[in-house]
Write a structure and sequence with these properties.
This protein has about 450 residues and is mainly beta. It is built from no helices and 33 strands. Strands 1, 2, 31, 32 and 33 form a 5-stranded antiparallel beta sheet that branches. The N terminus is likely disordered.
Length: about 450
């Protein structure tokens, strides 16, 4: 989930209005999410698979003191890789011009110093780099969007999406750009931050208990300079129960998103109940259906104490959509994949992603590849050694088409929070498929999480 435990070296910004902007430090899984069966350890050790080529790991956040976590990744022609994360006294950004093998010195994103969290980024067809993050200032919680026309060397354009209502609640943003250059930002919005309450682990992140929480979207048709109004996607606004909504734009301009949805009790309690993932699509990003399509209902519910940002959405080059998420039931914490070949009208039965049987963290993300191929990755603290990041190719109708690939190589300290997301994006292919991955982890005795990156090369037959 997008709420954070607070980072020792960063300011605390309040107990009610600022609670969703409290940034994270080292954390263990919340709500009893820790633990691993001893008989599963051997099968989850690093380097369990050597089916793909993994480049040497690069430390992207080098030079940013303190905690660095929760990274996102995007790529742009010809060989640019961009990483964005919580760190560098705000939101950290670094770019690579050689396909993710080496990164330049990190910078602090303009407008992010202070209380900023939840990074997201996208690259437009013309190469413009857009970075987004949440910010708290002046009785508002809202997204900020920076734009760069020089491959991230500078971000002269800084645009706050400031809501009209003071005292609002805001959280996790996602950003996407259409083929024609229209920029979309989804985020979590509530008219009243005072209605949002939390359940927190002793040394970890927090999750929502109550609130007028809603998935909303805004768009810009002038390159992110100005933004249209807040448009609710969740039905029953202002207590729609939706949040954490990754967004993508189809080649024909349709806007798709996957929202984590909960039923919210009527006032005065505004209590949230265990949720599920819901898909929605709009022809223009402004008009949304009154009923959203549930994805993977048979997998079971997403528990309220889940503190990581749950759910991811992607599309392969043939038009198949892929959704990932995880559930928490008496059977344990399990990561799932579902796919749709009819633009999200119907979805496949859930496919289990994570092999272990326990209550460990499973942050699952997906990247659509060539037609009929998806790359599913997950970060987990299930190994006895701590956090690790894995990747595995999947094809609808065929199943898993290769063994699991260990990407991170080293275990990260399970008591130090690595972030609720990691980064995955595709690089120019050729005879093989190359993927840029990034993740947070505290390795080799480090007392802070740092951002690391590697390039994974898979053969075209995958």
């Amino acid at each position: 989930m997008a709420i954070r435990a607070h980072l020792r070296s960063w300011p605390v910004i309040g107990t009610v209005a600022g609670a969703s902007a409290i940034l994270a430090v080292a954390c263990s899984p919340a709500g009893g999410m820790s633990g691993v069966r001893a008989d599963m350890v051997a099968s989850r050790a690093p380097h369990a698979s050597s089916a793909a080529g993994v480049s040497p790991v690069t430390e992207v956040s080098k030079g940013c003191t303190g905690q660095n976590a929760e990274v996102e990744t995007a790529t742009g022609a010809p060989h640019h890789v961009y990483d964005l994360w919580i760190g560098c006294a705000g939101i950290g950004f670094a770019q690579s011009a050689d396909g993710g093998l080496h990164f330049g010195k990190p910078i602090t994103a303009p407008g992010s110093r202070g209380a900023s969290w939840d990074p997201s980024l996208a690259v437009a067809p013309d190469g413009t780099v857009y970075i987004a993050f949440m910010h708290h200032a002046g009785h508002h919680q809202y997204p900020v969007v920076d734009a760069s026309a020089d491959h991230g060397a500078s971000f002269p354009q800084v645009s706050p999406l400031l809501p009209a209502k003071k005292g609002n609640w805001g959280d996790r943003d996602f950003i996407a750009v259409s083929k024609t250059g229209t920029v979309y930002v989804t985020w979590d919005y509530g008219p009243s931050a005072s209605l949002v309450t939390f359940t927190c682990a002793p040394n970890g992140s927090c999750a929502f208990k109550t609130g007028d929480v809603n998935t909303v979207i805004q768009q810009s048709t002038d390159g992110g300079k100005t933004w249209g109004p807040i448009i609710p996607v969740s039905p029953r606004f202002p207590r729609g129960g939706g949040y954490s909504a990754p967004v993508l734009v189809e080649p024909d301009g349709h806007v798709d998103l996957l929202s984590w949805g909960h039923f919210v009790s009527p006032p005065p309690s505004y209590a949230l109940h265990p949720g599920h993932e819901f898909f929605a699509s709009s022809a223009n990003g402004t008009t949304w259906p009154g009923h959203l399509t549930e994805v993977g209902a048979t997998a079971g519910p997403i528990a309220l104490p889940t503190w990581w940002i749950d759910g991811d959405l992607s599309r392969d080059q043939g038009g198949t959509l892929y959704a990932t998420w995880d559930t928490q039931t008496p059977a344990g914490d399990i990561g799932w994949l579902s796919f749709s070949a009819d633009d999200g009208t119907s979805w496949s039965a859930p496919v289990r992603v994570t092999p272990d049987t326990d209550k460990a963290v499973h942050i699952v993300e997906v990247l659509g590849g060539p037609a009929g191929v998806a790359y599913v990755a997950w970060q987990t603290d299930a190994p006895a050694g701590g956090y690790a990041t894995y990747l595995r190719p999947y094809a609808p109708g065929k199943g898993w088409t290769g063994p699991r690939v260990d990407v991170s190589g080293k275990f990260g300290n399970r008591k130090i929070w690595p972030g609720d997301t990691f980064g995955i994006a595709s690089l120019p292919g050729g005879p093989a498929t190359r993927l840029a991955l990034s993740w947070g982890s505290a390795v080799s005795g480090n007392t802070n999480s740092e951002i690391y990156a590697a390039v994974v090369t898979l053969t075209a037959t995958h």
